[in-house]
Design goal:
The protein is an alpha/beta fold and about 700 residues long.
Length: about 700
């Protein structure tokens, strides 16, 4: 344990260095060692002051996320911060690199802070619904006031130390290493003990009480009508820093932090975070190493193709983009420029464009390591493209289809290299969606799969393995959600009540409004093209076809399930029963049990997810969750459909499936694995383990 904290002394100043891995995690053992070392230094008459620093280039990234999953072991972070703040000798934090979460709280507990220009400070765990628990909501407002404290904590990402409102956190900022400056500051405070101030005693941030309360009230007003329980707790805690004595404020914060940690809201957010980190664990990584991709050819000039091109250029890959005409190539270049600006290229735009060439000659793709097709979802067109690419590509080049719907094996059949043809769908627009799904074909080698995965990850994508053989994981889940909504429509529930229930759950457009926005004809086309999976009820296809024939095609034509005004706002159609057909004339607007609607849809989604696990289309439940959250607007705080089913209780999910099985067995007949998990007292999360501990869905 002593190795976690190392001490050297320079002329009466003890330099205490945190040594705990590359980012100096504030583990329990490190906390114990640091508290002991602070006490030893306080008792040592040869020590006049203390400097805290992190080994390497990072002060500390705070607590490990795993420790945040349960109540902290003692001594907790609050105890460490109190030991630092209560020390009778000056403690100065020498900050460098990352200062995140608990590390920021530790720095705030010091009597002074000296930073170098590399410092980035923030509270990323707030994005997981977690509130600081070691005094940040009490010490921070005392230093920089309410407005900047709320900004820094709730942002969920780190800020450079010289950012507006953040610079006042530190007493000095140095261009380079901060340790020498921290030693100087520590000696100064030792020489002038009357100038040593504890964070609890600072009042700089309270200098303008009216502005302080105005900032609190403004954010509270902005949060009205939004489901943001952690932000509500944060506002209350920051307000309490001015209203309550410090110790009472600390107790208030700790109670609020524990409420947040135990909440379903935070459990969902933490699961979504972990799901993204877990997704990169492909079994093929144990079988092969990835090849390095330096040059990329892209076929197509639409939104998807130009988005991929922009990402590749941003990472300084050599990119050649093919379009059929010079005019189309020029339009594609304009889209790439716009996307690069949206991705923050700034004044680097011209330099980045130096990595890009557009062409109307497919032969210019011949030198590329990887060729990516991103043309329309038409099987004939894609087969023609791949046959042509097979003629011009290098023998070792990997050929990629961006298809979200079609069979990879059927696409690969147009070539003589099926082992090197793989699906990789980049969800668009790339500046808003960070998801890419790798869709292997039956003949793919492990090297092809991991090379595609690493290439997408290198472009800043969260990469999920999709074993459908064609079509993304999200498409069958969306189809199932629509099937469940149509089933409830047939039970006489208004589409507007169904949408209201799902919007309350967190889906931004529900089902029927989402269908209208996409276009009824587009939904039908995608259902018919999707490889391997069809609607589990013919009702949705029949209904949409009938509506299209009657002129109800969705938002672009002003009417679908909703009436759309000139401002593209949706309004319920009072004649919806007649529009949907005589078999649906029992629709009762209003009065529906919204919780029951949510449970029914969630049960159907969980059942479909279990089927994807059974077929090995999905490696683990959390992969389905990552796809739905990142790619399809499923509310992050629900964790994804599989996590939401766990939080609702798989027993209740199973009961709802059984209730509806006779009416629509294709959709609701329970996948056997759900009943097996319930019998074992487990849930889907038991199937999220990695490596040798990985489990498949039980029989």
């Amino acid at each position: 344990m002593t190795k976690l904290v190392q001490t050297e002394q320079q002329d009466g100043v003890a330099i205490v260095t945190l040594h705990n891995g590359p980012v100096n995690i504030l583990s329990r053992n490190l906390r114990v060692a640091l508290i002991e070392r602070i006490a030893e230094c306080a008792a040592d008459t040869s020590v006049r002051a203390i400097v805290l620093r992190g080994a390497g280039t990072v002060f500390s990234s705070g607590l490990d996320l795993g420790e945040l999953e349960s109540k902290a072991e003692q001594p907790d972070l609050a105890a460490l911060c109190s030991a630092v703040e209560d020390c009778t000798k000056p403690v100065v934090a020498a900050l460098s690199g990352l200062v995140l979460g608990g590390a920021a709280e530790l720095a705030l507990a010091a009597h002074a802070r000296v930073a170098d220009k590399t410092v980035r400070i923030g509270f990323p765990s707030f994005a997981m619904g977690l509130l600081p628990s070691a005094g940040a909501t009490q010490r921070l407002p005392r230093l920089i006031g309410a407005e900047h404290s709320l900004m820094l904590i709730r942002a969920g990402h780190p800020f450079p130390i010289d950012a507006e409102g953040v610079a006042d956190l530190v007493d000095r900022t140095e261009p380079e290493a901060s340790v020498e400056a921290a030693i100087t500051e520590a000696r100064r405070l030792a020489d002038h003990p009357d100038q040593m101030q504890r964070g609890r005693d600072r009042v700089d941030g309270f200098a303008d009480p009216a502005a302080f309360q105005a900032a609190v009230s403004k954010l509270r007003h902005q949060m009205q009508g939004r489901y943001a329980p952690t932000e509500a707790k944060l506002i209350d805690c920051v307000e309490a820093s001015m209203l309550l004595p410090f110790e009472a404020g600390l107790a208030f914060e700790q109670a609020a932090a524990e409420d947040c940690r135990q909440s379903a809201y935070s459990r969902g957010l933490r699961h979504a975070h972990q799901a993204q980190r877990r997704a990169s664990n492909f079994p093929e990584r144990l079988q092969a190493d990835p090849r390095k991709i330096e040059s990329v050819g892209i076929i197509g000039g639409g939104v998807s193709a130009t988005g991929i091109a922009a990402l590749a250029v941003l990472k300084q890959h050599k990119v050649v983009l093919f379009e059929r005409t010079e005019e189309a190539a020029a339009e594609a270049l304009s889209r790439i420029k716009a996307t690069l600006r949206a991705l923050g290229a700034g004044d680097r735009l011209d330099d980045l464009l130096g990595h890009l060439t557009t062409t109307v000659d497919l032969r210019q793709m011949s030198g590329a390591d990887m060729l990516i097709e991103a043309v329309a979802e038409n099987p004939t067109t894609k087969a023609q493209v791949f046959a042509a690419l097979d003629q011009v590509a290098r023998d070792d080049a990997i050929l990629v289809s961006n298809s979200a719907l079609l069979s990879i094996d059927e696409i690969a059949a147009a070539t003589k290299r099926p082992a090197q043809v793989i699906g990789m769908h980049f969800h668009a627009p790339v500046q808003m969606t960070t998801l890419a799904e790798v869709i292997p074909g039956a003949a793919n080698t492990a090297e092809t799969i991991v090379t595609a995965a690493d290439f997408a990850a290198g472009l800043g994508r969260v990469v999920v393995r999709c074993g459908t053989g064609g079509g993304t994981l999200g498409e069958p889940m969306l189809m199932t959600l629509r099937d469940a909504a149509i089933f409830q429509l047939q039970q006489g529930i208004s589409p507007y009540d169904i949408d209201r229930a799902l919007i309350d759950f967190g889906l931004p457009n529900g089902v029927f409004k989402a269908i209208d926005r996409l276009g009824l004809d587009v939904v039908v086309k995608r259902m018919h093209l999707l490889h391997g999976i069809k609607p589990q009820s013919g009702a949705i296809d029949d209904l949409l076809q009938r509506m299209i024939a009657a002129g109800y095609s969705g938002q672009r034509d002003g009417k679908g399930f909703y009436r759309w005004d000139d401002h593209m706002a949706a309004h319920p159609d009072p004649d919806i029963g007649a529009v949907l057909g005589r078999d649906l004339n029992r629709i009762r607007p209003g009065g529906a049990d919204l919780a029951q609607i949510q449970l029914n849809c969630l049960a159907a989604l969980a059942n479909q997810g279990a089927k994807l696990l059974r077929s090995d289309a999905a490696l683990r439940p959390s992969d389905i969750d990552a796809v739905m959250v990142l790619g399809h607007g499923f509310p992050r705080y629900q964790g994804g459909p599989m996590k939401a089913a766990d939080m609702a209780g798989l027993f209740h999910i199973l009961q709802e499936l059984r209730r509806c099985t006779d009416a629509l067995p294709a959709l609701y007949a329970p996948e056997p694995g759900i009943a097996a998990l319930v019998r074992n007292g487990e849930d889907f999360d038991a199937l999220n383990r990695l490596g040798r501990n990985r489990r498949t869905i039980p029989e």
